[in-house]
């Protein structure tokens, strides 16, 4: 499957729209199921406004038989967490010959592994905070206290503790003193076997969405994130009123331009396709630091990708319909 369709593939969307059979995948069996169902419902509604009927389906045992009985022209993956982002489902769709919007399986596996993605991004010349990623077994075998002391010496305080893979900021915590670190690690291990401890950088958090409608990946206006708690965790992301969003972000033009350039560079360096969202933080000196990338951006009412699409002057449904039409055209 080609990662980039010809620009002309997006042109006839309006003419083919009613004939296009689209399936939206949402749900899954993980911590982010409810968020995914909300995203999937929103996608179906936005596509309907754009004149395209879409069926929503879960990623369960009925999915492959259903797609075999009634093949989709293209699938939109609104699954979050491992189900939609670690590449496994996309690999199965590839095996079944089902075209889908989004990044290929191998790129998703790389992006899903946050430490590995940071290594690739740093090699591409994009700044990212220093980090250490260690499995639970290392703390058990070498002694948690000794290992934690070394991490504090190496990275300093405060720290961000997060699962090495995962989305929606599940398990993410800011640690301001040594006494808080053990409990934060234990909490984080509930979401995965490996924890990434990252140097905390004070600054302005940005979400920079990237979309490719046929002319190469383009960055949309950055969204500035201002959580009332100071930490953009799961609660701050999905509870209306707990976070303020400003789009375009209230940063100098040169900083916004650098953030946009870096988001596109991340998208290319990791081999992503169609759409992505890069999370970054701008330090007081104006440096833009990469935090992580999402290959299946949220599409709920409080999600940043729809905000960015609107700020760019586009209709979300039209963008999603174009992405589906391009993938359907490539498959043919």
Automatic annotation (TrEMBL):
- Enzyme category, top tier: ligase
GO molecular function terms here?
A: D-alanine-D-alanine ligase activity
Q: Where is the ATP-grasp domain?
A: 118-325
Q: List the EC numbers from the record.
A: 6.3.2.4
Name the pathway it acts in: Cell wall biogenesis; peptidoglycan biosynthesis
**Family matches, as PROSITE patterns:** ATP_GRASP
Keyword terms, alphabetized: ATP-binding, Cell shape, Cell wall biogenesis/degradation, Cytoplasm, Ligase, Nucleotide-binding, Peptidoglycan synthesis
Q: Which family does it belong to?
A: Belongs to the D-alanine--D-alanine ligase family.
Protein's job: Cell wall formation.
Q: Identify this protein by name.
A: D-alanine--D-alanine ligase
